[in-house]
Amino acid sequence: MVVKQNIAVICNYKLLENRVGGMDYFFWAFNKKCLEQHIEIDWFFPNIATHGEYNTFNIIANEKAPIEESFINYTKKNNTHYTHVITHFVELCTSFHAQVKHLLNTKIIAVDHNPRPLGGYPFVKQLKKRIKGYLYAKHINQFIGVSDYTSQAVLKDFGAFLKSKTKTVYNGVVITDIIAKTTQRAIENPRFLVVSHLRFSKGIQDLILAVSKLPEHVIKNLKIDIFGDGPYKKELLHLVSVHQLNSVFTFKGSSSSLNTNYQHYDYMLQPTHMECFSLSVLESLAANIPVITTPVGGNEEVITHEKNGFIFKAKDIFALTALLQSIITGEKQIKINTRKLIEDQFSIELMVKHHFSYIN
Q1: Shortest CA distance to 171 belongs to which of 357, 7, 298?
Q2: Is the distance from CB of 333 to CB of 312 less than 8 angstroms?
Q3: Which of 247, 320, 328, 341 has the fewest CB atoms lying closer than 10 Å?
Q4: φ and ψ at 227, to 5 degrees?
């Protein structure tokens, strides 16, 4: 007898019409795949949305309660059973997973999107995570890391005994929606963009300081557009003003048309301190725009130094200044088309196929 599949996907991810990113495209593609296979799927998000393809979703949201609490209350009230429960952006190895297993006796798949801090967690937090691993990891059937870095971090955090049920499924992007740059990159005075949530851990303050140390004649024609918003924007604007770099940096805010905008630039800058596996890096490369970034998270799993981008040590402002100067003056450049790697290894189709294999 074939058991009809009924899936719950729990995503602690706010749905915003003015911030449509790679994960939204994945959710849309995964939902479509499930519907095509006649698999019922309930989506638990922090809020209701109808933009894009969310109007085809069965979204259950309670903005007044944490998403874990909302899910437990919903299943109890409606006596709902699910063959699979999948979590995204939900803390791993907590009592919530034990509650779900006890309540539904279902297969639980936990996807880890969480970046780790530069230098690792403090000892006390390491110890707490290891204890949580021994207490609650047994309730999770499958751990999925979005990069090999993330999968290894799961084992480091919660215990090497989880190796047999921890796999990597790389994030992917919708290649066909991203317009590739077809004109030659500027050899001197290239145009740069940053695509990032504006918070301290993204290291944009390092970029501002690095630019401030460039010679005046190099700064003169330099343009860097920053796409994104966040709680650190005020501090970044102040830093730009203090160093008199208003002619260099333009804050563009969130944009829903980035897939068509990448092509107008020559390089993307990502001076991040912590990362998991960046979708903006994949999008940029898919647009044939090389990436200048740090060796954190899974960045080096997609960026090869001096081949399709450049790698510099996180927080090393002087190294970034030197690297920027060599790129701006034409001493260093990336010549290859960076799109092919993304087409072959990091497409949304591959991402959906691999995720779907764990429920099929």
Answers
A1: 298
A2: no
A3: 247
A4: -100, 130
Instruction: Return all residues near 334 (Cβ < 8 A) that are at least 6 apart.
Output: 185, 267, 290, 306, 307, 308, 309, 310
Task: Supply angle C-alpha 80, 84, 87, rounded to 5.
Answer: 100
**Contact (Cβ atoms closer than 8 angstroms) between residue 275 and residue 298:** yes
Q: What secondary structure does DSSP assign to 204-223, as a single string?
A: HHHHHHHHHTS-HHHHTT--
Q: Is 193 within 8 Å of 262 (Cβ atoms)?
A: yes
297-304, Cβ contacts within 8 angstroms, sequence gap of 24 or more: 297/115, 297/116, 297/147, 297/149, 297/150, 297/272, 298/146, 298/147, 298/148, 298/149, 298/150, 298/170, 299/270, 299/272, 299/275, 301/147, 301/148, 301/149, 301/170, 301/277, 302/277, 302/341, 302/346
Is 24 in contact with 99 (CB distance < 8 Å)?
A: no
Give the list of residues 6+ apart from residue 101 with CB closer than 8 angstroms, or none. 108, 139
Counting Cβ atoms within 10 Å, is residue 7 exposed (0-12), middle (13-18) or buried (19+)?
Answer: buried
DSSP state of 305: B
- Tell me the C-alpha distance between 325 and 328, whole Å: 5
Q: What is the pLDDT of residues 271-304, one digit of tens each?
A: 999 998 999 999 999 999 999 999 999 999 999 9
Question: Per-residue pLDDT tens for 67-119?
Answer: 999 999 999 999 889 999 999 999 999 999 999 999 999 999 999 999 999 88
Pair of tokens at residue 265? 């630039």
User: Helical H runs in the chain?
Assistant: 22-36, 67-78, 95-104, 123-136, 148-158, 204-212, 216-219, 233-242, 258-261, 279-286, 317-328, 339-345, 348-357
Q: What are phi and psi of 249, to 5 degrees?
A: -95, 130
- The strand pairing partners of 40, in sequence order, are 6
Element (H, E) at 293: strand 291-293
